[in-house]
Amino acid sequence: MLIIGTIWKTIDLVHAPRDRLLRILVTCLLLLAAGQILSFPEASSKVDAFTTAGAGKITFNAIHMSGLAALILFFASSMREPNTTHQRQLRANTALLIGVLIALLVAMIATPATLRDHTLSTPYMAEPAIACFYIIGNAYFVYAYLTSGFWALYCARMASWHLAFGLRTMTLGLFGLAITSVNRVVWVCLRIGEPGSHSTFNMVNWAMNDWALGIVLIGVCYSASVQLILHLRSVAHHRRMYRDLTPLWQVLSAAYPELVLNREPAISPWTRFRLRGTHVRFYRRLIECRDGLVRLSPYLMQVAPDADLARGPADQLARHINDALALKPATEDPHTALSAARIALPPGNDLSADARELIAISRAYAKGNREQSSDHR
Q1: What digits encode the pLDDT tens for the residues 142-180?
Q2: What are phi and psi of 38, to 5 degrees?
Q3: Which one, 121, 153, 191, 262, has the greatest CB density within 10 A?
Q4: Could you give the CA distance from residue 366 to residue 351 in angstroms, rounded to a whole number?
Q5: Which burial class, exposed, middle or buried, applies to 306 when counting CB atoms under 10 A from its CB (0-12, 13-18, 19+)?
Q6: How far apart (Å, rounded) are the C-alpha atoms in residues 65 and 225?
Q7: Rounded Cα distance, 323 and 301, in Å
Q8: Do 97 and 66 touch, CB atoms closer than 8 A?
Q9: How far is CA 116 from CA 111, 113, 181, 275, in A?
Q10: SS3 category, 337
Q11: How many CB atoms lie within 10 A of CB 101?
């Protein structure tokens, strides 16, 4: 799941390289995914084989802890004051991370070379350097899981219901991971005096760790699924409005072709299934329709001097468009001053309201043309 999330968000980052929050998220996912791969003993052993004994553990901890630090930074940067909070969290977490990694490196160097391939089940836990390695590492994990969990819980208070549910689920899992890290510290301390004891405690703790990690992934997948569904709904909505504007856009772009910038080539079957760019195409068509009506407005005033062009019904305005286009000369004199009028003003001051007004005109225009075609048959 982490690899899928990394690929997904990396594609988004390619199209929005200046999005700082997205950069942090991609970095976090990439580091956590790499850390999960290095957590397997086979991967750690291969790193040791290419370098030196103990390098695999240091590499895993460095990458996984950096991913958790990036997760904290991601949540902190999502707040209302991202600049100040981001810089403060960046300095604090970077300093703490560097300090912890230096301590782990010192502990590994202090460990005899023959014991550097140790695990939590090692019979040599009484060795001070080995015990310190696990206590320091798990203490940082407790901090990272709790801190990111509290930040996620804080973000959930300001999020939509669906996103808040995913964040709270993720928080529950992060708190569970923090508890298992505390348990590992306890287990290390217990085994310093009794090296082979409390194996059942460790088995139960690993089971809790798996459950907690699963809950985190459920929260992440739920939030990602909601985001994907909302994105697909938005794409479908904009595609539908894009098509609805086509009749009005076609007649206005034919009258004023210079208003159409970056005219697209013929749409291939593959292009129809592409999601990216749908919003841009819709907003561009909306703006082009509005600009065309502004250009046509002097002729609309001439054919309907007594009509309320700003607040009148869409079907009435649509009937005047053909008359105004017939009145418009094929080539306008650039030295002739024409007064523009307000056409189809939306009730609200937003693009959605403007789109609804223009779509109503476009539908009415298309309906009027169909009725005229039927009458001529």
Answers
A1: 999 999 999 999 888 888 888 889 999 999 999 999 999
A2: -75, -15
A3: 191
A4: 22
A5: exposed
A6: 26
A7: 11
A8: yes
A9: 6, 5, 21, 51
A10: coil
A11: 18
